[in-house]
Amino acid sequence: MAEVINMPRLSDTMEEGTVATWLKKVGDKIEEGDILAEIETDKATMEFESFNEGVLLHIGVLEGETTKVDELLAIIGEEGEDISELLKASLATNNDEDNSLEKTNHKGDAKNEAKVTELPEGVIVVTMPRLSDTMEEGTVATWLKKVGDPIEEGDILAEIETDKATMEFESFNEGTLLHVGLNEGDSAKVDDLIAIIGPKGTDVSHIAKNFSVHIDATVEVKPNKVEQEQSKPISDKEEKIVIPVSNATGRVFVSPLAKKIAEEKGYDLSQIQGSGENGRVIKRDVENYVPRQAVKQSLAPVAKFIPSGEENFDEIKHSQMRKVIAKRLGESKFSAPHYYLNVEFDMENAIAFRSQFNSIPDVKISYNDMIVKACALALRQHPQVNSRWFSDKMQLNNHVHIGVAVAVEDGLVVPVVRFANEQALPQIGAAIKDFAGRAKNKKLTPQEMEGSTFTVSNLGMFGIESFTSIINQPNSAILSVGAIVQKPIVKNGEIVIGNTMKLTLACDHRTVDGATGAQFLQTLKGYIENPVTMLV
Questions:
Q1: Helices (DSSP H) in 186-292: which residue ranges?
Q2: What is the pLDDT of residues 9-53, one digit of tens each?
Q3: I want to staple 54 with a disulfide (CB 3.0 to 4.6 A). Which of 76, 148, 247, 253 is the partner?
Q4: Per the residue annotation, which of 206, 318, 338, 509 is the catalytic one?
Q5: What would the mean pLDDT of 155-175 be, rounded to a whole number?
Q6: Residue 346 designated active-site
Q7: Bigger pLDDT: 493 or 316?
Q8: The CATH number of 116-210 is which of 3.40.50.1820, 2.40.50.100, 3.90.1310.10, 3.40.1000.70?
Q9: Cβ atoms < 10 Å from Cβ of 409
């Protein structure tokens, strides 16, 4: 007899799960103990083991899709067994829950309720996905499909900018793209409508109109009608939804690659005529653009003209990353009592050590790699600096995951070098180089930016000698690293030319007392000024 397999509760706080990977497919024989799938919970991605045997007859949740705990995940039974009644029963249960929720949300408004809950056959409402554990809203960076395009399962609909990265959003449905609810650059909260897919020609205007949205109050998202051309009149029934070339603020719509090329060449995008869909500026437009003489002259200071007495400014809409960075830094600065410890290390031995280490073929490490390794070793001896504060307890981490701050166009990301104390210097260097490269292209995954126990922020490469950082919570401390500076120092009672580096440790006084922070810096000093000890 067929058995319904529901989404398991794999953690104490788990309310829903996402199928990261199916390890079995429909038709496969299943033995008790086989791993059916990898399930992503609120805490980790875990293997889901089958406690039944038979044939996998049905998969109810596709890879990347999410469902609540105890809802249908799969059905296992005998080959060829009829499972239609089980599917109907599961669908009826889900519909009862959905109808109950809709009645609560639209109580007293029967017309709207009917419009929202009664979707035409085959019509799918696509909502803003939750692409990271901390994501509250997303921004459509680029639409890769337009209204009227046929959609196949697996097609990439759009690139969605979250608080951590820009990620591709894949369609799990097929049909025609009937409606786009957000323009490029517009934001919406998780679960708000962003598109509608269904059979070609289906009228979905009432669905889009009555779907509850919570986007920024300053943004009014409405379908835009194509202006009727005199030579090609459009009937009332042929209302088309398009992405405008620019809105009231004068923003130009441009593909990410075209924008990057234009910035590299120093071109003004507002001067470039777009040949893409609905006038969008694309790669070939930038590559074929020839700046006008007047534009060239405007770049020279003598030719720049701003009317006397006129105030002038540009407005830049906050990205999701910038908004989240601002929120979290504010929470950290005003909730954790920061204090700062300043030190200056002699870098002569470190310079000689790095030079000798890099003389090995195919090996290259940076001073930052050495600092990360030294911090990881020192944290093992001072667990309070590697801790986390809770209202009723302190969590002392026995593992060391070092977050490395990386500057990107929209702000700052912190990829994590896991178990840094157990990694060799070349491994740490390779990991940081890989993270930095992918961070600038927004290709880091949310998992690669989670779980740090301590953070290193280095501005030495920009010539900054000393600075302080805001703690990257839930860490208890962050180390700010300045540039190596050549200057006169006193050695053995004589003034000589030496190389030093200033570091500042910002600590949360709730978890790290002043003496504890000072002892950590003393241990760190031993590793940095005698780096050969890191190899012992």
A1: 205-210, 256-265, 283-288
A2: 776 567 888 898 899 999 999 998 788 998 887 656 778 888 888
A3: 76
A4: 509
A5: 83
A6: no
A7: 493
A8: 2.40.50.100
A9: 10
